[in-house]
């Protein structure tokens, strides 16, 4: 715990914005013991980190003999060693212990705190150093990645992960935009900006010609980002491009990526490689940025009343065109439905919660949409692991959480004292306003562990109370820091607005409706913190213009061994885990038995339910589990996935308690309609969100599927080049089989003829009465497929295209290998795959016989021994899959995302990691790799 020593003249601090006052912080021990160093309280062990690319077996990183605590997972060890240890690999200067990494960072923070007068005495600085060390060592929180990359090294001390740039309507400014973005991308970070100052293509230049418009300049910036990515970066350049809804070129902007998606489809069908990392994808434009439209309250009200809306010239502000607001909103939703862009940013809400409006409006965000503040500014992030504050009796330790927030926010503010920045303008703004972004991870795991459904009133109440407490403590500590080292320089000009926003946060806290003892206790403490913080701030000002955001927590989430990232729910109930020695396992999340115990189930019941989950991947019909408890175990994907509005409601619950916004993409099923996208975007405005983006499953063409290891190279043989497909006809007499089937009550027959020694060659499908339209369509379809097979189109191509199609009739079948089909086509091609494709190819498509699935479950999970009532033995329910000795006939998962694919029998839209080839999983509005910690833009 920390407290302020010394007073000073509050009036002087409030007006000058710069003056330091006497005294410093007294820091009391919370986690540590006096006389005992945190490192001496844990058991250390030596480990070897060897990371391979599973696609070709090559080693992409190796460092042996690294030192970590015994309770750190192998995955966290691998990611921290490969990503954050500094020094050339193999050299004596290379860091080889977690102690060195933590000391490098923490000592830099403590030293800067001493230098800049943050502490009342050297003893307080030492306690601060020990407390910070303990929390990092025990994975209670983590700074964002740039801190681990740069602090304490010979590199520039860049601590920020989030950047906002600015561009004006001059060629010099536009070219400078390209340059500044390039510098930020080169350093592995991302940036966002608003292009609305650039005049539209309907306006004239001073020379008399017509302006190019912002969309044309986006092409150059996109090409620059793509070039820097292809120049050696391990992730794509992360960028956000925003355009105001009243810009005359807004419709062109909205449709840019949707039009390019059509181009991708045409090129793909012509045989070009259009996967995300494909050789031909670079010919497509606008793929390196997230696009968002900045919508005003005026526009949204016009949508609601179905009125018209004016588009304004950039130079004069006059209305040069009027459009149907509802029609434009539908165009936005249609584009998002087609390609997931653009998202929306709600300008009215964003600027209503702006602490510094006298210094400029908020016009843009960082690439992941959580940081929103002044142009040419930055934000450094840190996230707390919420599950660390769950108590054994099913509670949440709010007082200890508040003390942890105090320490973390203090460290974050100290970092600005010594930080370097990519541009002079960004450095100047950040030092004047000192924007911070404290947040959290593992919310989904915490709610489940405490017995709350993610999409429930109780779950939202606890999330809101925790977020309110976090931000309330942060601003209270910020006011205390202002009394010690002075408020931020821009405070004096914005004092009235800043105080107004603090009162808005406090008022929102009073509106949180509590349902259980946990959320009531947390909210009560938050109420005290807001009251105390406002009183201190009105006297001394605040040290920081911004305090909190909810970031994706990609790589640092893995560093903290979090089950869930940011505000996200659990991804799936069964996860993928690496083992010491190089193997891997599939394990039911440790949160599940904890949740079952919290819900009142006995040890024997918990064991049976966990065993069922291990086998089926979901809780539906689990033995002894009451149906009213199913919702507690709902996840992002799977049998019981959380509805899109469930995600929106959770965002709405916590948004009033965040200085910034939330990095999150609302996933929607492939069957979602444009009208449903409209409703999500409209409700986001109604609920008071600051930003919202959606992703409809399978809406993008350029999504890669995981593939197994390539076969060893065979001796080269002379190739015969065919310049056209050659039809290979079936012999007069050929083997065939007929299968009768029933799908959703519809009966039919599948006749399949094959070559004597070379696979399937023809199919005929009988469905519907002879002479009916349906019968004729099926005959034509059968002939088309048969001719394609005889011209060399692989069966697996047809299976990948036609399986999982959804239309009636659909439902239960009479086939023991395929119990449920989403359509007749889905059934037919799954049956053909089972009958004619080898196991390896079927495994890649997620198609197995009933016997194969049973064998997998038996080989994977076995039989679990009895467990003690207070400690369910989850280890008994998992199975090691040694990649070096794996059965080559089996498809092995290499991440939780791939494990979910195996369980569901479908391929997800997440990209493959560019570093290690592992299927990534969602992390906020980005993706993160469990294999090596790489991210698609977030830190």
Please describe what this structure looks like.
It catalyses: a 2'-deoxyribonucleoside 5'-diphosphate + [thioredoxin]-disulfide + H2O = a ribonucleoside 5'-diphosphate + [thioredoxin]-dithiol. GO terms for molecular function: cobalamin binding; cobalt ion binding; nucleotide binding; ribonucleoside-diphosphate reductase activity, thioredoxin disulfide as acceptor. Residues 1-24 are annotated as: Disordered. InterPro entries: RdRp_reductase_class-2 (IPR050862), RNR_2_N (IPR013678), RNR_lg_C (IPR000788), RNR_NrdJ/NrdZ (IPR013344), TSCPD_dom (IPR024434). The chain is an alpha/beta fold and 939 residues long. Among the domains are: 2-159 and 365-555, no CATH class; 166-359, Alpha-Beta Barrel (Anaerobic Ribonucleotide-triphosphate Reductase Large Chain), CATH 3.20.70.20; 736-848, no CATH class. Strands 5, 6, 7, 8, 9, 12, 13, 14, 17 and 18 form a 10-stranded mixed beta sheet that branches. The model is unreliable at 4-20, 230-235, 703-722 and 861-890 (pLDDT under 50).
